[in-house]
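hiii so my PI (J.) wants the whole complex modelled not just the main chain, which honestly fair. so below is everything: four entries, each one labled with what it is. i double checked the lines twice but i was tired so who knows lol
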Amino acid sequence: MRFFSDNAAPVHPRVLEAMAAANALDTAYDGDALSRQLDGRFSDLFERDVRALWVPSGTAANCLGLAAICPPYGGVVCHRDAHIQNDECGAPEFYTHGAKLMLADGDGAKMTPDTVRTVLDAIANDVHRVQPHAISITNATEYGRVYRPDEVAAIGELARSRGLRLHMDGARFANAVAHAGCSPADITWRAGVEVLSFGFIKNGGMSAEMLVFFDPDLVGATPQRRKRAGLLFSKGRFLAAQVLAMLDGDLWLDNARAANAGATLLAGGAGDRLIHPVEANEVFLRATPDEAAALRARGFDFYDWAAGEIRLVTSWDQTPDAIRPLADAIAAL
Amino acid sequence: MRFFSDNAAPVHPRVLEAMAAANALDTAYDGDALSRQLDGRFSDLFERDVRALWVPSGTAANCLGLAAICPPYGGVVCHRDAHIQNDECGAPEFYTHGAKLMLADGDGAKMTPDTVRTVLDAIANDVHRVQPHAISITNATEYGRVYRPDEVAAIGELARSRGLRLHMDGARFANAVAHAGCSPADITWRAGVEVLSFGFIKNGGMSAEMLVFFDPDLVGATPQRRKRAGLLFSKGRFLAAQVLAMLDGDLWLDNARAANAGATLLAGGAGDRLIHPVEANEVFLRATPDEAAALRARGFDFYDWAAGEIRLVTSWDQTPDAIRPLADAIAAL
Amino acid sequence: MRFFSDNAAPVHPRVLEAMAAANALDTAYDGDALSRQLDGRFSDLFERDVRALWVPSGTAANCLGLAAICPPYGGVVCHRDAHIQNDECGAPEFYTHGAKLMLADGDGAKMTPDTVRTVLDAIANDVHRVQPHAISITNATEYGRVYRPDEVAAIGELARSRGLRLHMDGARFANAVAHAGCSPADITWRAGVEVLSFGFIKNGGMSAEMLVFFDPDLVGATPQRRKRAGLLFSKGRFLAAQVLAMLDGDLWLDNARAANAGATLLAGGAGDRLIHPVEANEVFLRATPDEAAALRARGFDFYDWAAGEIRLVTSWDQTPDAIRPLADAIAAL
Amino acid sequence: MRFFSDNAAPVHPRVLEAMAAANALDTAYDGDALSRQLDGRFSDLFERDVRALWVPSGTAANCLGLAAICPPYGGVVCHRDAHIQNDECGAPEFYTHGAKLMLADGDGAKMTPDTVRTVLDAIANDVHRVQPHAISITNATEYGRVYRPDEVAAIGELARSRGLRLHMDGARFANAVAHAGCSPADITWRAGVEVLSFGFIKNGGMSAEMLVFFDPDLVGATPQRRKRAGLLFSKGRFLAAQVLAMLDGDLWLDNARAANAGATLLAGGAGDRLIHPVEANEVFLRATPDEAAALRARGFDFYDWAAGEIRLVTSWDQTPDAIRPLADAIAAL
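here's the output for the full assembly
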């Protein structure tokens, strides 16, 4: 059974249905009736006027977002375990034309104002050093930790005081909101976030994420950059349809709650095998190679992480009944 | 009725069905069973071993292809009306890191060995001038003209003699093959084409094109570049599914034949309004603003082109019965 | 004798002396006493507050200037024979991260408002087309023609009306000013020029050009880009010294007048061999291969240009006595 | 007195003389008689056929070198205190079009095979991670430490075993060779170095460094990249003249020995204030702000480094008599 990534989870049936329905429209690019709803729908969700563009992958969302707030000669502070640093084959450098990622520390891939400040304070302010222009935080993090609104706000305040823009990689934004139990606004712009990569693909979508600019002016040349990267799909209505279906009836939140609950269930019997508190839909455990092999022998599929560590990821489609056998197997190790 | 672009045509039902079926798979990126069939299926189609990668847009296919054959300090000869020059917001320059497009002439957006040679011969071979590294031809062209295999081969021979790579932008490759009545091999690698952007989106697909390298070694770092551009979708199986559905039973050819037939029908009564011979699924007509307005008043939707010119594009889904009213209206102008 | 390029002319003795004198200073980069005079000295010269940065080559000056006014997804209108298009191996694309040059026509490599407008008006204003952001004119042009202040102003007015920035490639700016007999201000910012590459190397300098921003705010990140390109020399005082020596006593104008006079002398007996009016220090002549060979046999060194054409360039160091033998030889052909 | 950087030291009189003499030549770019000697002269020095190109700054040398061995989607392992990481405003990212620097540890800014291996072994070999393509070491390092030939060779062997190219930033190469007392060949290509930035500017030159390719084929498109960056100076003879003057009579070694001796003299009375062994021309000392102020009050100019640390750099032109007062002052603190 699939616990290696929510990346590979199925698409929610309501999303597929919405895509099929969108076939009847016949306007190209983002001129269709669905795409034109996005600004409004996300403005409603976030309780302020935003600009919201579909993009077809999380990497694209992150990197178009960073390109909007960091010039080629600038830097972006992020955690050293961030997806943009380790898992995008240099996409931030490609999209920004060579900006430098500046790596901060923090437990569970969470930065704090202190760890960010350590990076910033080591940078002499002269023309020889790449100067920081932005901070990027990931919520939920690569280790399934969640920044609560006050934690985001603390970094937001630091960003503002240093004249830096704040981006949030929300590939698992829904899981973070579901865990925090707050409004989407509280954990983003009210806490200082200016650009959000809002993920749907891991959460029941197929190929659509949203890039949200809380200050509409910040969108700048993002439409041009999106086109220039080959991301302005001619049949964009099928991306808009996915996202709108996820918003309808808060499917995005329901799916995230289900995935989070699955991880909590898994972690239940893990005891001190647990490496990180489980706050979203990822569980990191200590497990010997033999133990990992034993789990795999029973049909559970997951990633080896560092030596003696495994990663289990739950998805929106996995019911408690489907997860319980793995939870039991972990408890019984 | 939609005659403004095949870009906005519906997705073929068999494609949608194949996508729905792909939902049952659960492997990420291009590791799934469908994506892994692509090299083999396209090798069969082209009668030689090829490497075939899905990409989600024609711009992405073109520009990843060009990046594989032209370095940042090189140039690509293309027609001055080529899509890569005029309709991709500088994507070739973005993906190649600044290569220069070198613009050639030719009727109907078709270059000839002579018009390419005129460009090449004007370039002094020294370190001050950007040197050409590749030629890119579009088949069918922006004006719905088709390069026959012998015409491609003439440019292929020129490319080889000058040490240049040859790329074909086949956003409407199916329409070209359908018109030429040749094998896909004859009009590509047997004629010297080394990299092909093979379009499906305008022809009944949703969001998948194929980038085909006829010499598998030429693929080089394209997988890295695809990832780096945010184009390695985690749910890539839905792209592979589209393409495989289009190959099954030669749906790609049937669709193209239908679209081409529609254009031929439209052109039938156009007489000397016709600006270019109709060989694919586009019809360019002389029409005064009043005439254009009269057609629009009857519900036909199309683009104004240059002053006094209109462009009509037919699609796979438009039956003769659906097209005939416009054909009649044109004849009656 | 050297008539192939002013590129290779000797350095003026006063420049060499100034460089030797600069050796006594010992501050790095552009913090030295000479570099710090530049803003002031060029503000005086141009009769307004400017920002003036040394750069070590004309290509660097042009491309840092363009990068300041054109984003990666933008375009720069220039003449199709411009140096930035033909002689810089794609440096504009490198420095701007892929902006597109948009080529205009015009006799003698001079654009006019009409020829620029033809380019601009063909560009649909949508996200698919690279949009123009700037115009770059070369004064004196590649063919030794000079834009007079009113001609610059006409293009400046067009630029302003279209929201475009205006750059002047002044690799031979001194020759243009000498010919026009105007003030440097009249032919630049008073005529709408916002960024100037002010050349000294062809005119008696060794390795220093100036990049002048008439609106100090436009300098933007140019200091960072200069550093990032490896152009912020640690011993920058030797660049500043060159330029200041050229300004002292208007050496730059004297040198240009001498070079221009040489070209006028050469052209005197050329009659209808002359291809372009001689306004700066270049002479383009019709000459058969035999005639060219005859001149070379007498020790005159120059470039073949197009078929049946030769280019002769005079330099600041060539006296009338030194030039007269070639003038006579041409007249006697 | 200047101890803040060798960057600002005077140009050696023999270099100035050679530049003045080069004024008599009149060939442009690198076609002159001096530039054409460089391959041969450096082949002699390094005891094998090399390709040697002048470039006008150390940053340019490093980054053109890296661009020759690392593609845009690749990575370069370097020390976290390396000049390319901290002092070039992102020039490596600019020249390579976005390659990523991968930071290794090591005392005194010296990496070891172990610290490099730690970086390499943490990189999963898949398309999501930027893959390393090269290692760059600095000799002498930012802290004045020298890699001996066997230490270079150990890293060279690691590079070879992992399929990585090896670059040496030799901004202070002369100081390293002078300290190691070895041949230039032993500390470079015989130890696995493939590309060398050979510095002259800090060592008595004005504006010329050499980029040396030990495998002539590796030079690749470096001439095009040099031009494209605005670094192919039209009066390149003045760069070649500088370098040749430095080679004549081993001036480069004499100068480096003098600078190294100065640092050794300074360190003589420093006792346990010394932070790093003194092997080249840099001395890092512990000193309180009061102590630093006291030294400055006596006219000695230097950089504050980290808190409680100062950096003193000696230059080729500083005689023992000139240095002794500072040495005494340090000893007397």
